[in-house]
Amino acid sequence: NAVEYINTLFPTEQALEEAQKAIQQLFGKIKDIKDKAEKSEQMVKEITRDIKQLDHAKRHLTTSITTLNHLHMLAGGVDSLEAMTRKRQYGEVANLLQGVVNVLEHFQKYMGIPQIRQLSERVKAAQSELGTQILADFEETFPAQGSKKSGGPSIVLRDACLVANVLDPRIKQEIIKKFIRQHLSEYLVLFQENQDVAWLDKIDRRYAWIKRQLVDYEEKYGRMFPEEWCMTERIAVEFCHITRTELAKLMRARAREIEVKLLLFAIQRTTNFEGLLAKRFSGCTLNNGPGKKPETPLEPTNPFLEDESGEDNVSEKDEDLDRKPKAPDNPFHGIVSKCFEPHLYVYIESQDKNLGELIDRFVADFRAQGPPKSGTDEGGAVLPSCADLFVYYKKCMVQCSQLSTGEPMIALTTIFQKYLREYAWKILSGNLPKTSTSSGGLTISSLLKEKEGSEVTKFTMEELCLICSILSTAEYCLATTQQLEEKLKEKVDKPLMERINLTGEMDTFSTVISNSIQLLVQDLDAACDPALTAMSKMPWQSVEHVGDQSPYVTSVIMHIKQNVPIIRDNLASTRKYFTQFCIKFTNSFIPKFINHLFRCKPISMVGAEQLLLDTHSLKTVLLDLPSIGSQVVRKAPASYTKIVVKGMTRAEMILKVVMAPHEPSVVFVDNYIKLLADSNPETFQKILDMKGLKRSEQSTMLELFRQRLPNPPSGPDAGPSLSFSAPTPEQESSRIRKLEKLIKKRIQ
């Protein structure tokens, strides 16, 4: 077994020889297969070479046959074309010519062959002859001078138009040009400059004439020209170009005869005609039609266009200035009406005159009707003339925006500015009451049993209502003028937008508002002056006990309750300006009250307590000022409350300093610096005068004040000497607490 296994692993010499023979046989078979493959490949190449030769021969033969056919067609077509041209058989020519031209394109690379070149020249000659012949036929049928031949269009000319589509485009354009010129020749004769019907007052006849001509064309020649030529639209467009040129020339010659009504009549009729064209035609010939190319129509951005029919139904305070512009899609806009733009100065001058008369009428009506009556719905309302003015502005904008968005709009804007200022001056500022009729004022000194009397001049309720009405009107004008500026900028050409600026007019109305508020403040302020004067003249040193509020406080409150509710009710629609009035009055009254407070000298301790009680009463009234006398109590604005609290607290601090004992001096000075935080020696001097100190004592106090001023006590480490609760002024502090309790009891 071991021997057999070894023989298996190591074959014998005989086995090796057999293996080598097998390998040699395998190589022999592979070589035979390879030789056969090479022979097959050679055979395929020979077969393929023959097929390629056959393919080339077939292709060349096909090309030759096709070329010969084309040549035959071209030669026959040229002969037929020449024959048909001589016989004016345009119907057959139209189809044949296009085929000949298409066939000739196949011979472009053979133009070096004399025969082919000759055929090409014959085709061009035939085309040229056709063009000349067709133009002559049209000239004969529609001569440039004289009337058209009677009868409808001929079939020959209809077929000639089909041929013109294949010929040079200039032939088609020449046919269109000559036909339109001949068709409109009568128009030039009928509406010459020296004819009565040529003037603007009979402009309707121009448009009526072209309407008849278009109807006549449709009936007689509508089928003669191909539909894609758009001949009806081309006639209308050329009519518009001629009309614009003729009207411009005529208006230059007779410019002095143009009146605004006549101009607007002509413009209205013309824009109506342009709108009719837009409904009837697409405007496809405006860029490629014969004649002068019309100017690109200006994009209309009139914000009132959609409400033009109802423009008279505008409410007083709800103008349509905020409407979005709705631009009509009219490619014919301005194609004729553009000629009126150089003469729009007549319209602008007319609007200048009309607005001047309107302002004068407003002034006369105001004088006749008088100011708004108090206690009525008119009090404090916007003046009706304001709405009338802006309604008229709207009408002007509608008209002008339809005519031009260029320089005429700038000129109209200038007119608007002029009369906005005049309205502000003549109607608003001019009617603000300057001085009121003297009425029986409350004599404060009589209340105090003094012999001196004073007379207060106050505005009547009607005058207060008038001021509020003017203020509301100015506010409305301010807001509407801002909208007006925005809409004018939207409608005018973009390069001109920067020239529209109504800021000056808005500032004018802002000034009217400010002056109106100031008048209301001055009136109430002046009414309170006698009471404050009486306060400063009272013998405060002789007051023996603290009672109810002083008569001067009652007088001030009375005037406030008389004026403020009227003003608030009449400014209900302009709440922010009522708040401004309250703030301005407070800013005026409180400093004046403090100044009169300094004049109350000398003041006893009881007198100071009474003044402190009065000051607190006034503070309470001022805090309640925005809603005083109103059934609906509103919280006063924080900005207003802050002003009242700050100002009246200063007045209370002044009185507390006066009530404090001046001994020891250091404590008094430190408390003054702490409470008032005023480094002005003059203010400190006034406090000393109110306390009734002698000059020698005042000098010492002032010197001490200057010494203590650089290092005023502050913070929690200042010590008890800075407070009125210090042991020394204990009695005075107790009296102040009692006074505060009394004030709280009165408030409840």
Automatic annotation (TrEMBL):
<dbReference type="GO" id="GO:0015031">
    <property type="term" value="P:protein transport"/>
</dbReference>
<dbReference type="InterPro" id="IPR039766">
    <property type="entry name" value="Vps53"/>
</dbReference>
<dbReference type="InterPro" id="IPR031745">
    <property type="entry name" value="Vps53_C"/>
</dbReference>
<keyword id="KW-0813">Transport</keyword>
<protein>
    <recommendedName>
        <fullName>Vacuolar protein sorting-associated protein 53 homolog</fullName>
    </recommendedName>
</protein>
<dbReference type="GO" id="GO:0007041">
    <property type="term" value="P:lysosomal transport"/>
</dbReference>
<dbReference type="GO" id="GO:0000938">
    <property type="term" value="C:GARP complex"/>
</dbReference>
<dbReference type="GO" id="GO:0010008">
    <property type="term" value="C:endosome membrane"/>
</dbReference>
<feature type="compositionally biased region" description="Basic and acidic residues">
    <location>
        <begin position="732"/>
        <end position="742"/>
    </location>
</feature>
<keyword id="KW-0333">Golgi apparatus</keyword>
<feature type="region of interest" description="Disordered">
    <location>
        <begin position="707"/>
        <end position="748"/>
    </location>
</feature>
<dbReference type="GO" id="GO:0042147">
    <property type="term" value="P:retrograde transport, endosome to Golgi"/>
</dbReference>
<keyword id="KW-0175">Coiled coil</keyword>
<keyword id="KW-0967">Endosome</keyword>
<dbReference type="GO" id="GO:0055037">
    <property type="term" value="C:recycling endosome"/>
</dbReference>
<feature type="region of interest" description="Disordered">
    <location>
        <begin position="288"/>
        <end position="329"/>
    </location>
</feature>
<feature type="compositionally biased region" description="Basic and acidic residues">
    <location>
        <begin position="314"/>
        <end position="327"/>
    </location>
</feature>
<feature type="coiled-coil region">
    <location>
        <begin position="16"/>
        <end position="57"/>
    </location>
</feature>
<comment type="similarity">
    <text>Belongs to the VPS53 family.</text>
</comment>
<dbReference type="GO" id="GO:0005829">
    <property type="term" value="C:cytosol"/>
</dbReference>
<dbReference type="InterPro" id="IPR038260">
    <property type="entry name" value="Vps53_C_sf"/>
</dbReference>
<feature type="domain" description="Vps53 N-terminal">
    <location>
        <begin position="12"/>
        <end position="366"/>
    </location>
</feature>
<keyword id="KW-0653">Protein transport</keyword>
<dbReference type="InterPro" id="IPR007234">
    <property type="entry name" value="Vps53_N"/>
</dbReference>
<feature type="domain" description="Vps53 C-terminal">
    <location>
        <begin position="609"/>
        <end position="693"/>
    </location>
</feature>
<dbReference type="Pfam" id="PF16854">
    <property type="entry name" value="VPS53_C"/>
</dbReference>
<feature type="compositionally biased region" description="Polar residues">
    <location>
        <begin position="722"/>
        <end position="731"/>
    </location>
</feature>
<keyword id="KW-0472">Membrane</keyword>
<dbReference type="Pfam" id="PF04100">
    <property type="entry name" value="Vps53_N"/>
</dbReference>
